[in-house]
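[audit] Reproducing an earlier prediction to check determinism. Same input, same settings, fresh worker. If the tokens differ from the archived copy the diff job will pick it up downstream; this log only records the rerun itself.
[audit] input (136 residues):
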Amino acid sequence: MMRTGVIKYKNVIQDISIFFEKQIKIGINKGVSKSRFILDPGIGFGKAVEQNVEIIKNLSHFKKFSLAILVGISRKSHLGTVLKKNLNLENIPGPNERLEAGLAETAVAVLNGATIVRTHDILKTKRFLAVLDNFL
């Protein structure tokens, strides 16, 4: 049975952190080297807009694991919701209208510790990150 909707979190950052700890422990116990893990907090997967924003704002919390942190922000629906709200738009912008929002959120994620970025718009994101990296 496929579950839909928003996952209930007591504290989204703490709950994801506990999940990571458990999964790393399971992997290590099965012989996987810790250095082979990549942490993905699952932006957009069963999370409310506010939870996605909270994760991006607090991504640095996951740096305590000393592992690569991946974010997949590109074209996510919560970006459309944020744009609609902040720009007082009548409709939620579609996936192809969310590039700038995705790049803005990507900047915050990278500044907060993301080391891998999954994107639909590879060249534009690469150019964006090349300039951002110039200031880090």
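[audit] rerun output stored. Observation attached for the diff report: Residues 57 and 108 are 7 Å apart (CA to CA).
[audit] end
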